[in-house]
Amino acid sequence: MRGWILAACIVAAPALQAATFHGLVTHVTDGDTIWVRPNGGGAPVELRLVDIDAPEGCQPHGAEAKRALRERLLREPVRVQTQGTDTFDRQLARVQHRRQDIGAWMVRNGHAWSSSFQGKAGPHARLERLARQERKGLWSVPGALEPRSFRKRFGRCQ
Which residues constitute the domain of residue 83? Predict the structure, then answer.
């Protein structure tokens, strides 16, 4: 019986952290992290866009990815669907602007990778292939290094 209760709690935990709200983007930290002030008031919430991984700020195309996200979202209204937190205590979220998934937009325009997990293609893999074929954004120059490989080799940006 105790095992069933524990299993139920583990399965339900992500759902307990899920929320949907509307707000205004107040800050763009990098190509996959933004701050949104909820419409109902309160302090801005730090959000990490799910399903993508943008270049680190100090790696090639990192500044361009941040600029693209800032130009699209800063001081703009968005719809946020949170999906838990990451290891840095940021809310993981899917963000929509004008009914468009911003993670998908970042990948399609060559500003981020579609996140993969244990060798399985990420949800935006088709969009990433198109961006690569069209040599958009970070794919315009050969040798783009995934952020996870970059961090492993060089560490996090300071």
Answer: 17-154
Measured distance CA(136)–CA(67) in Å, rounded: 15
What pLDDT, on the 0 to 100 scale, is given for residue 122? 87
What's the predicted TM-score (pTM) here?
Answer: 0.86
Is 7 part of a structural domain of the chain?
no
At residue 50's C-alpha, the angle toward residues 98 and 8, to 5°, is 120
Domain membership of residue 85 (yes or no) is yes
CA distance 10 to 93: 20
Q: Please list the active-site residues.
A: 48, 56, 90
- How many domains are contained in the chain? 1
User: Average of pLDDT values for 33-49?
Assistant: 96
Q: Does some domain include residue 125?
A: yes
